[in-house]
Specification:
Strand 1 and strand 2 form a beta hairpin. The protein has 13 helices and 2 strands. Strands 1-2 form a two-stranded antiparallel ribbon. The chain is elongated. By secondary structure, the chain is mainly α. The two termini are 39 Å apart.
Length: 321
């Protein structure tokens, strides 16, 4: 049975939905409202914040556990069994909260939290390089057009045509006596910017002929002012959404390079490096493989779910394509 208003008109079914989103809401207000509404996204955000805090507080957390990431504990392994950890579940005990590494006896908790610091630092720094370079190139190509657009577009095509993983392995393999973290950040950023540039270029092409941009141009505003005051705020939503989706890929790339032996070098801990070293012990000490793999899986999953949600909110058209 349907109800009608006193004048006989059907009620406005969309009224509650219209009231749920106040007019004039900014993208960040919409993002906060949607993040509160989705339980899975709230959990992902909490996990992301937990990993970030863990990375920032890695030295204090390691000291709280009582072990540095490079300290050997020969009393925690059995030399007569090939250096297998003493006790159940990889040597988990009140002294070693997540167990120890086989043979060396290094504390897994300390190495995991310090590995989070290395992995997230490389991922965030590489993402920053990719976003800054890609945004600058995309805005310049889309706004100025002509020869600038042609040169930058061909450079994007050229960079994207390289088999990036093979070139990363080759460049990292031949480099000697350099800071591996800085080198990995630079190499990953070198091959990642064209994707952001293409997204920003498309957004800029759709914005540069809007009425407010034409009005600013007719009013004598400089190109720099138009780009920073009118174009950049218009592309910020898709860029933020794309950025959050880049981070899990960067974490996975760093882990893959370290797993292949061309990334972070021992004794500096890294999740990918720990997983690579655990392959030789997965039958006798599966916890050594499970613990860093679980941390890597949770970090990538949390960042991916958060990035998907922000993309749906800040760039709904991009999320549907």
């Amino acid at each position: 049975m349907t109800t009608t208003t006193p004048d006989g008109a059907a009620p406005d079914i969309a009224a509650p939905a219209a009231q749920a989103v106040p007019p004039g809401s900014s993208p960040w207000q919409l993002a906060r409202r949607e993040l509160r509404r989705r339980p899975a996204v709230r959990i992902s955000l909490c996990v992301v914040l937990l990993f970030v805090l863990m990375a920032l507080a890695a030295p204090w957390l390691g000291a709280l556990g009582g072990w540095s990431p490079d300290a050997f504990d020969k009393a925690a392994v059995d030399p007569y069994l090939g250096g297998q950890p003493l006790g159940s579940f990889g040597g988990i005990s009140p002294e070693h909260w997540l167990g120890v590494e086989p043979v060396t006896g290094r504390d897994l908790f300390s190495r995991v939290v310090h590995g989070a610091q290395v992995s997230l630092m490389i991922a965030f720094a590489a993402t920053a390089i990719v976003v800054l370079a890609g945004t600058a190139a995309g805005i310049a190509a889309g706004y100025f057009g002509g020869r600038t657009d042609a040169v930058l577009s061909r450079l994007m095509d050229l960079t994207m045509s390289f088999p990036s993983l093979i070139f990363m392995i080759a460049m990292l393999s031949v480099a000697r006596d350099v800071n591996r973290i800085v080198l990995m950040t630079s190499v990953i950023g070198l091959f990642g910017w064209p994707g952001v540039a293409r997204v920003v270029r498309g957004q800029t092409l759709s914005l540069k002929h809007r009425e407010y941009v034409d009005a600013a141009r007719v009013g004598g505003a400089s190109s720099w002012r138009i780009l920073t005051r009118d174009i950049l705020p218009g592309v910020s939503g898709p860029v933020i959404a794309y950025t959050t989706l880049l981070i899990p890929g960067m974490i996975s790339t760093e882990a893959a390079l370290s797993y292949l032996g061309v990334g972070v070098r021992p004794p500096t801990p890294s999740w990918g490096q720990m997983i690579a070293e655990s392959v030789a012990f997965y039958e006798t000490d599966p916890m050594y493989f499970v613990i860093p793999s679980a941390f890597l899986f949770l970090a990538v999953l949390a960042f991916t779910l958060l990035g998907d949600a922000l993309r749906d909110i800040l760039d709904p058209r991009g999320g549907r394509t």
